[in-house]
Fold these 4 entries.
Entry 1:
Amino acid sequence: MITGASSGIGAQLARELAGRGHGLVLVARRGDLLMSLAEDLRGSGVRVEVVTADLADPEDRAGLLDRVLELGLTPSILINNAGLSTLGPVHSADVDRELNMIAVDVVAVAELCTRFLPGMVERGQGAILNVASTAAFQPLPGQAGYGACKAFVLSYSRSLVGELAGTGVSVTALCPGPVQTGFIDAAGFSREQAESALPSFMWESVENVARCGIDALAKGHPVAIPGTANLVAAMAAHLTPKRILVPLMARQHPGLKDVRRSSPGAGK
């Protein structure tokens, strides 16, 4: 089962798994996009089912496992890919949008893992792929909530790895850097802003990200970071003293550009 499967990384993860012979349950809010993707994937000769759900909705989250079981399917792989970001300083943020992000990026991950894991452990096999981000390795002023959400996903996934040792169930955190998908536009970045903030050698194709994630899932690796440049950058950010790193990132983040211009004393 793949959440956030209607586009971007989620859709490519579905293509990667279908190409390896896995049947799929695709989950997202946009049923029309899911149906179109499902039709394409069925051409690979695998079973593909569509379940529309809003992971910000507690009832939709709570009912997902039962809806999969009602299809006569036993979930062997759970991919928590659905996610979104807000942009800009917290002091000017919309409260509802912030809480919606936390519901999708954090609460849904924890709830679905908690609901799906008991059956996997009982059967003695299964795998979970939680999509985090290289943003998990450091604070992210300008996207404070998003960085914190992904730090939760990474820490939570690592903890599950320790808990599940010897059960036959693995957990992997996929931590992409910048990827050319619609995620950037939805977060509120212009493409020019994103590409000016992050050098071209750090950008990975969605195909490379999905392949890296599924390869790591198949091997039971705890963390996967697509691209050597992103791996080096994530480790450097993790090790750099935050009193140095945070002001530097705040100066560079496009989400704080207008704030800097309008702040008292700007330009002096």
Note: The chain has one domain: 2-262.
Entry 2:
Amino acid sequence: MKPSSLLFAGALILSVNPLFAAEGASPAWTEVAEVDVQLMGDYEGEWLDAPKGHYYEINKPLAAQVMNVRPGEYFLRFNQELDHRADAYFEGKGTLEGGVIRFEGNGWKGEVSKDGLKGTCGQGNKPPIQFSLKKVVRSSPTLGAKPPEGAVVLLDGKNLDAWEHGGGRPVSWHLLENGVMEVRSAANPEERKQGIGGDIQTKQKFGDCKIHLEFRYPVEPGKAGQGRGNSGFFFQGDYEVQILNSYGLEGRWNECGALYKTSPPKVNAARPPMEWQTYDIDYKASVWKDGKKVSSPRITVRLNGVLIHQDEEIPHATAHAFASRFKEPQGDGPIRLQDHSNAIQFRNIWLIPGK
């Protein structure tokens, strides 16, 4: 079903997606600038006419990320390949003009349109080198993975029976028509007044486990950092793997894929807003004896199929407040999902308990 459109802010086109609206999703999903849907995201291509022996001729692949900053303003980053920590070829702002994002700076010049991303890179007195890229959607290899025999299904879209708020309060998050669970209460003062919202946790407790989880965040133009697409999920109630709209960011210790304020991801594998993403995690719980910690939790994390933590130790609770990081849980605990004021959606959550 195609989205309908109307004038927005005198220049942009606001895409009102009737499919999201029919599913009961919040405005963060139903009202999105059409250019964000069409142009924001990952691009891959190559250098076209680099001189023989030039670095760009030897290394022809070229990739770019186009990120929304605020309505009509974008940020672009060019690298040789995506999903690698590497110096950027170019970073700079882009401006929306007549449905096309145009950028220029440091010898680079180009535009992003529905036909792709094209431009040139200057060489001083020599002719500029041309490049051409196409938009790509890099779906996770485990997207839609079905729970194996013996798995504990925590969210299959039929109900929220596996979850509760703290203290046993029934879940007040939204189960949409398409079976997706959405948290959005913090952005809706009226729902807050009604007591809707807050973190949720599994009724069942777990220690060692493997978990599969799918999530996505909206665009939220004008927001940034921890205020954009923020959520997270916690093992034993206190060890967090961060969820954040970190698309195109550096991948720091409080961004998507991080063990919150403990370890940054090996690489920023966060995908663009609106796209479904996956976490596949092996978790080994802490071991205690006579009230003393014998070993800390250890964790292996794949975000969208990309290995971002390999048997990483979690030395303390991943609390925001420093003083709370050394108040650690002993024994099994719930899986907790965070309500952090953003309209995050979840689906297809299942877990395989350890021995």
Note: The longest strand covers residues 126-136.
Entry 3:
Amino acid sequence: MKVVLEYDGSGFAGWQQQANGRTVEAELKRALRAVTGAEPKVYAAGRTDAGAHAEGQVVSFEMDGRITPQRLVAALNAHLPKDVSVLTAEVAPDGFHARYSARWRRYRYRYLDRRARPALERGRCWHIGVPLDVDAMSEAANALVGKHDWTSYCSASEPPAGRVREMRSAKVARRGDFVELELVAEGFLRGLARSIAGALADVGRGRKPPEWVGEVLRARDRRLAARTAPAGGLTLVEVIY
């Protein structure tokens, strides 16, 4: 079965189930157990960080065909908390795996650069509070496109042999009071999207020149990167198969 979820990550310690802390995976498993009487192994397309959100998280799992996809959506939503919702469900083709079958993942990071702090969008953006130079951020983001070793921008816990990934696109655009960074890549290493967002914020605030982002990338040295951006601004938008 293939299921698409959205969730507000503010109240979660991330996607992946853990001994301590509320997680999206644990809530989904609890709902599946209530609906089916079983707790299948679930696989997500992306393991979102604590506080990060999703509009299009894809999950796959095995289950018998006694419940139609339409009924499954309603039944799961009846048992899930209000900050998680199943959007769609469908029978997946043979061999489908939410993570390994995915070709690209699209993430969005939102900055708010007006002076006033957010009320309605609190927990859904990074309040910068000073005007961002979107043109400089866009120029800096161009260096990220292509296949790279992301050592400078990913967590040190990632195995060195697995840090090369392709970035399909990296775009920065203004949407009213918000500045949005959109990243599309074959896969996102731990901390990658938020580290990139932090580096581009330094460029947007004039603390670093646009070429600095590419220089840090090529250096393959995590010590050179900027602070990691807060998780609340990050959303998994779409998984492309």
Note: The beta strands are 2-7, 43-44, 53-60, 84-90, 104-112, 126-127, 146-149, 164-175, 178-185, 234-240.
Entry 4:
Amino acid sequence: MFKKIRPFIFKFDPETAHNLAIQALKFNFIPSKKKINFKNIETEIFGQKIPNPIGLAAGFDKDAEVYNSIFKLGFGFVEVGTITPLKQFGNSKPRVFRLEEDNALINRLGFNNSGADLVQSRIRLNPPKGLFGINIGPNKDSKNRIQDYLIGLRKFYDLANYLTINISSPNTENLRSFHNENELNELLDAINKEKELLKTSIPTVLKISPDINDKEIEKISNIILNYNISAIIISNTSDRTRDTLKNINKLEKGGLSGKPIEIKSNLIINKFFKNLKSKVKIIGVGGVDSAESVYEKIINGASLIQLYTGMVYKGPSIANKISEDLNNLFKKQGVTNISEIVGTKK
């Protein structure tokens, strides 16, 4: 069905099409998918079992409006956000671009969202029906970005299964400076102290840029181990990796997502996996649109995966489709559980 209506959807600009999808999910215009449970793709994270390792990445349900509808589409977990303390419009439009020949998107949205207070009340009124993450970040004009993360922690620590600290968007100026050793130490130290004050053990997840080098990977790995980070998300969008793209929109400023960053993401996942030695779970993101692409992420070191751009191009049934195909792939390979093959690529 999606293949038939995709040309019509793609007549709208990407942000309008996205808003229409959110409205369709709100009013149940997109039918729920029959729940598919396969034992060998079940997994566990943060002490909770989930039916499959396929998650929807932050960026789709930015304002936490349709997460329970997304669970009904067959996703094993859902992450909303990025949420900032105060409401912000984000960058000026147009700010999302399709690169159809490349199966990619470029966005420079800039953390557009309704702010922590409204989102907090929305989630309280509609408790999540599955493993649920909230992605938090600072306001663009914040005088104290660390304080903004702490506000996000206070607002959401009792509403989610995990909180993602987003230091990796290329669309908020200087946000990626938190990849620097001193700044990352300061941020994670402040977060751990705030968690102690709140008496919360909510898992903290760090979302990392794909545009880092081997020395940075080593330093960040050591810091992650020092601060007992529960998981890392690798990776966010890239503000590089444009050379082989075909679509003219490759010239647009912003973060690139989709197939062109798949290999880059897999290489970084593998490097972090070797550094972290299975002590920290990795959630792999970047170019996921099939069981084969999930399999590659897992053998490179990811225990779970997230996607977003893949759903734009393959439609709302993508999670169920990948789950079925992954189950068949595992059977063919004799894999009885995901944990058997995590990080097995040399």
Note: The chain has one domain: 2-340.
